[in-house]
Amino acid sequence: MNTPTHTRAHRLAARVEAATPAHRDRAIDGLRALALLAVPLGHWMLGGFRLDADGLHNASPLSTFGAFAPLSWVLQMLGIFFLVGGYASVLSYHRRPSTTAAWLRGRLVRLGRPVLGVTAVWAVLLAALSWLGVPGDTLRTGSTLVIQPLWFVGVYTVVTALTPLCLRLARRLGGWAALPLLGSVAVVDFLRYGPFAEGMPSWLSVLNILPGWLFAYQLGVSWGEGRMGKRGARLLLVGGGVLFAVLLLAFHYPASMVGVPGEARTNSHPPSLLVVALAAAQSGAAILVRDRLGRALRRPLLWAPVVVVNLSAMTILCWHQSAMLAAAVPASLLDGGTAVAGLTTGPDTVGWVLARMVWLPVFAGLLVLIARYTRRFDAPWKAGTRAANARRALAGVLAAGFAVFALGLA
């Protein structure tokens, strides 16, 4: 017998199915949703806090449980996100109604609005929380976590702007257009980790930011142009996997895909060759499962959640850390400084891991609640009137103030 909840789910899924255009590429949306959900799950599981007399401080279970590093290989799915982004940009670019500049401006505005919204809101929150007596260290920790995922939006903005160039390269070189990007990262890694490392400037690693993340995006553009097939995907999967293993075992790259406090080297900020190898293997696997995934998502009950996640993409990226902080900050203010297991206790015991898993649905519920009020930042903002322009200017000023605080510039 169907329960009311079961019936409502079926009705919602049926409405979503009916509203889905026949030409919609469900596999691409499914891959994007998978990569999107990996972002909050990764941050919630691989990030923690330590509570002391000065407030909350960032901590990571990977500092104690190095054996958990392979979990980061699964949860770090930015390679797939950039791959799908490149593929989707090709389709969007070909459908552009007017000029390339107008297309690019529209894409960048859609990325920028949610970022401006979350940073402006947090500027107000910081002032309110400080007035309520929340310790300065807690505010610093919170602002760092909020701004942490936003670097992705900045990088994605830059690679999106390069779409026309990526298209020309894809048409000329096919999937091989991404190879020089891999080579560029390899050269920089050799200079900063090889025999000449001591003589290299500290800023050298910054040179990996663009090619490291553009690599998978370029693969996606080539895929979207029909220049990347299953043969190329198998080469990516096998070649990326072999390179990944060689870098880990022979060249002793850090095993974690995310930064670990106290470690001298990190893979992701900026990306190392290990990140590119993982992105290659992930991209190959994604291309190979595309048809099978598309068939699976013909089922309305599987397709409906994918649609919801994709519609909430920027909200998830911008606000998932706020959901965790919505639980952790009040818990840190409990009378007597009592630490809450899995939330404000140090992530250095198996008990913390088990308790954090219990907190995951709480964080998810808080994110859904926050999203009800913050999705308005994704929609076009009113403009043209004096009041609307004043609100946009105020949001810009607040966002700039938050950025100054979060980046430690004040």
Write up this protein:
The protein has helices at about 5-20, 25-45, 70-75, 80-95, 100-130, 135-145, 150-160, 165-175, 180-195, 210-225, 230-250, 275-295, 300-310, 315-330, 350-375, 385-405, and strands at about 50, 55-60. It has 16 helices and 2 strands. About 70% of the residues lie in helices and about 0% in strands. It is globular, with a radius of gyration of 22 Å. It is mainly alpha-helical and about 400 residues long. It has a two-stranded antiparallel ribbon.
Q: In terms of topology, how is this protein built?
A:
Blueprint: H1 4-19, H2 26-46, E1 48-52, E2 55-59, H3 69-75, H4 78-94, H5 100-131, H6 136-147, H7 150-161, H8 163-173, H9 179-193, H10 209-224, H11 230-249, H12 273-296, H13 300-311, H14 313-332, H15 350-374, H16 386-406
Antiparallel strand pairs: 1-2
Helix pairs in contact: 1-13, 2-4, 2-12, 2-13, 2-14, 4-10, 4-12, 5-6, 5-7, 5-14, 5-16, 6-14, 6-16, 7-10, 8-10, 9-10, 10-12, 11-12, 14-15
Radius of gyration: 22 Å
Low-pLDDT residue spans? none
Please give the share of residues in helix: 55-70%
Topology as H/E string? HHEEHHHHHHHHHHHHHH
Mean pLDDT comes to: 90
Key attributes of the depicted protein:
mainly alpha; two-stranded antiparallel sheet; 16 helices; 2 strands
